[in-house]
From TrEMBL:
<feature type="domain" description="Csd3-like second N-terminal">
    <location>
        <begin position="179"/>
        <end position="285"/>
    </location>
</feature>
<dbReference type="InterPro" id="IPR050570">
    <property type="entry name" value="Cell_wall_metabolism_enzyme"/>
</dbReference>
<keyword id="KW-0482">Metalloprotease</keyword>
<protein>
    <submittedName>
        <fullName>M23 family metallopeptidase</fullName>
    </submittedName>
</protein>
<keyword id="KW-0645">Protease</keyword>
<dbReference type="InterPro" id="IPR016047">
    <property type="entry name" value="M23ase_b-sheet_dom"/>
</dbReference>
<dbReference type="Pfam" id="PF01551">
    <property type="entry name" value="Peptidase_M23"/>
</dbReference>
<keyword id="KW-0479">Metal-binding</keyword>
<feature type="domain" description="M23ase beta-sheet core">
    <location>
        <begin position="305"/>
        <end position="400"/>
    </location>
</feature>
<keyword id="KW-0378">Hydrolase</keyword>
<dbReference type="Pfam" id="PF19425">
    <property type="entry name" value="Csd3_N2"/>
</dbReference>
<keyword id="KW-0862">Zinc</keyword>
<dbReference type="InterPro" id="IPR045834">
    <property type="entry name" value="Csd3_N2"/>
</dbReference>
Amino acid sequence: MIALGAVALAFWPDFAPLEARSAMPEGEEIRDEFRSQMIMPLAYGADSGRKMGPTSQVIPLASAPERPQIDVLATLAPGDSFATMLRRAGVSSSDVSRVSALIDDAMPLSDIEPGTQIDITLGRRMQPGTPRPLDALKFRARFDLELEIGRRGFNADTGETGMLALQRNVIRVDDTPLRVRGKVGSSLYRSMRSAGVPASAVQDYIKALDNQINLNREVRASDEFDIIVAYRRAATGERQAGNLLYAGIDRGGQPRTQLMRWGDEGRFYEASGVGEQRGGLIAPVPGRISSRYGMRRHPILGYRRMHAGLDFRARRGTPIAAVTDGTVSGAGRMGGCGIAVRLDHGSGLSTRYCHMSRMAVQRGQKVRRGQIIGYVGSTGLSTGPHLHYEMYRGGRHINPASVNFVTRAQLSGTELIDFRRQLIKLKEVDVGAALEDLEQLQTESEEPIREIEKIDMARRIGGGTNGP
């Protein structure tokens, strides 16, 4: 017992720590070796897979293989041609000519709006150094039309590609106008914008009503605005707002003001068929008056005679606007008046604009209030660039500053009947009906890409009658 106790005491361990193998290997090379076998996020620098140097068994390639296809998204820039855009995207000249001819048969190339995006797929080169052939091209040509160009008749054995062919994908479009109603409140503009009316339509609405009534005095906060805008809905989900069609103000449930756009000129007419009022005359040029109507000493002839108009100071080339609607009854050189334009406004009233540098209208042309008819010059008996403006009534000149008249269009006969029918039809549009999504037809449903989506779709179709 004593001997065994002595042996145990002889081999009794001390209390010093024991050396053990570290949990992580030491050294950069060893850690990189472990890291190559890990699965890590790309954000933390994942480099799964061990990299090995080339050996004698590796055969170097003469040239790196090219991608079989390249997808390009091209945009038609303002002022750019469709052909130039295709060449810039890498399409060969022969394919550009073929594509341009195909699209031109479907629609004029000039009708493609700037900003249109074109999906282009370029295929494999037939020989090194040659342009890639065009495999596919697809873009939205119009709101209701999608054009798609692809290869037809591909031969898998020989690798020869077929000819480019065009496919028209007509998109179903609903043209139900968008109608919005609501309280005027403290601010007509803010109330309409809060109701979802586009900003451009609100501006057109206010401008149309402002020509008929005083919005500040005649419109109350308790009144209701009624606006109808041209609206288009595509089956693919896109929406497009157009011009203002109807502008109205209701009070106590009854229409107080009703204006509807009518005719090729886009004028607004009241429900009675009376067109928008064009109040007063506008200044033909933005300059101040330098010489008024009456007797004066002529600056060139040197003696006193009647000055039958108003002289406006303006720089050479300043645009001259028609003071109101009319028809060009004369255009050309008119003696001491130089290059001049004479407008007939009806009811025996006419105006003449003298000393122009050049004209912008011709005889017999109809002009509207504010339309540019010429440019300031100094032709004829003139000491410098200015506009001499005259007005006549019954063939005799009068003081232009004393006349302030308005022009109103009036519908009659069958045109008035058609106008009222269209107004009734337009006001039958339900409020907010155009905001609903179009019901998708079976032929318009998208083809599922993944197999699991096909299974889910088949399950929904098969159990559709038992659904809620």
